[in-house]
Amino acid sequence: MKIGYFQFLPEFLKIKNNFDKVEMILNANKAKIKGLELLVFPEYFLSGPLKIEYLSDYEKKISTEEIKNYFSKISEKFPKTTFVMGSVLLKINENYFNATLVCKNGKIIAEYHKKALIYNERYVCESDDNVSIFKVNNLDIGIAICWDLILPEIFRKYAEKIDLLILPSFWGIAGNALQARYSFSLEKKYYTALGISRAYENAFALLFVNSVGKYKSPFYSDRMMGGSYFVLPPLGLTNKTNDKNPNKLHIIDFDKKILQEYKDFYETGKDYFYYLNKKVI
After folding, report:
1. What's the rounded Cα separation, in Å, for the pair 142 and 46?
2. Of 20, 126, 191, 216, which sees the most CB atoms within 10 A?
């Protein structure tokens, strides 16, 4: 399977500008995208994170229905490619969710809501206990978002059910008081180690897609760290980028046969009760 991703960096609340930039980079990479089976964007790629006081401005600029229509139209231009549209704020029954929408040939085929809400999300967003699985050819694919990485129980729900986990992110360096004590990036080590652990302990491949570049809003400025990566057990970290261009298309190959060998040999996707019932412990 050929998978592409962009480390796209949004401008705060400039929805139309961000839409236009997305269309620009899609058109610039049209030939390559037509050869992809899956294309992924980062978390919050249309607006950046919001505080409560900016929700009314957000609602004036775009509605949930308009977001869905826009994503559907984009996917119609590339009918053979499934799009994982990073994440956006969706209003559902008067509540907001940090949501990932998955689109294929004009239709929304999956939706996932972030579980581990952080910072202002705790005041803006609701969540739920649902996971989301969709199919691309012979692969079953699940979704989590950014800070969900800290909750192993979310990923365990996907064990034995998926081949690949897609994880859009908007992960920066701000807020880490420990960072000043070290010359290397603590955050990159943290989110990379967590992703590798989640992939190995649950026996699926994992693609982490993060924004890259300097981000500014009236209440939050940060350096989004990029460092997107792909984990394929048993080979480990088979792709990681330090590229700082948010508009560059990155392409990776995923061979399910390699993952299947890991699943068959280690059986880490099975839990304690499986082995208990087999009377091997």
Report:
1. 22
2. 191
Radius of gyration of the chain (CA): 18
Q: Does residue 234 have a cis bond before it (omega within 30 degrees)?
A: yes
CA distance 48 to 219: 11
What is the pLDDT at residue 280? 52
**b/e per residue, 34-54, with b = 16+ CB within 10 A?**
eebebbbbbbbbbbbbbeeeb
9-57 pLDDT, tens digit each: 999 999 999 999 999 999 999 999 999 999 999 999 999 999 999 999 9
Where is average pLDDT lowest: 42-46, 240-244, 275-279?
275-279
Residue 176: DSSP 8-state: -
Residue that the structure tokens 């984009």 belong to? 74
Q: How far apart are CA 209 and CA 207, in angstroms?
A: 6
The tokens 């994440």 sit on which residue? 87
**Integer CA distances (angstroms), 161 to 11, 151, 224, in order:** 36, 18, 32
Helical spans, DSSP H, in the chain: 15-28, 30-33, 55-61, 64-76, 121-124, 152-156, 186-202, 256-266, 272-277
- In the chain the beta strands, taken as DSSP E runs, fall at 2-6, 38-40, 82-84, 88-92, 95-104, 107-113, 125-126, 133-136, 139-143, 164-169, 205-210, 212-216, 221-225, 229-232, 236-240, 249-253
Three-class DSSP category at 231: strand
